[in-house]
Amino acid sequence: MSGKPKLHYFNGRGRMEPIRWLLAAAGVEFEECFIEKKDDLLKLRKDGSLLFQQVPMVEIDGMKLAQTRAILNYIAGKYNLYGKDLKERALIDMYAEGMMDLNELLMSYPFQPADKKEQHLANALDKTTNRYFPVFEKVLKDHGQDFLVGNQFSKADVQLLEILLMAEEYKPDILAKFPLLQVIEQCCFGFVLQKFKARVSNIPTIKKFLQPGSQRKPLPEEKDVQKAWKIFH
Fold first, then answer.
1. What is the CA 116 to chain-centroid distance, rounded?
2. How far apart are the first and last CA of the chain?
3. DSSP one-letter code for 32
4. What is the pLDDT of residues 104-151, one digit of tens each?
């Protein structure tokens, strides 16, 4: 029996995508069990595999874990991507929670009704550039280290790269908005997020995940949206 984690979800991004990213960043191979139709979801519910009757669900280390954040935290702890002490873990969680809020905004855009899409995207991009990205720009600039917490690669860095690349898919020049902050001591906050993106993208496990043919999922097309609706609604 394979020891690889098994990921149960539909063949698309959704709430499973941060889990795929984190496993890939940790260098962990995983299998995907795609939910192709509503009957597949009903079967998982009927056999008791889904604690809260919903996916994502990941089989790992003899457990069937539900809830995206719980799964991410387990993987981060298992593979040393969760800081060295309680204080660092609190910071990682704080940053990651902000990123998950932004992820939900951007991720849900393709699923909006046609008459609300434009407004939804405008709101999401406004919050990206004016609420969320300035936070991470400032964190990285203030401590001057390579990673968000403790100068050690963590799940927060993985999630930030994912959200940076997702935002660029919707607005390719979004990072050109930075530096947004004022000039301080005659030195601007020069392209901190761009440098972070380049640095983390070149970590070997992540670089591999960013290559064509990996298990990273593309932006959903209309056919993917319709398929997801049929499965989950």
1. 24
2. 33
3. E
4. 999 999 999 999 999 999 999 999 999 999 999 999 999 999 999 999
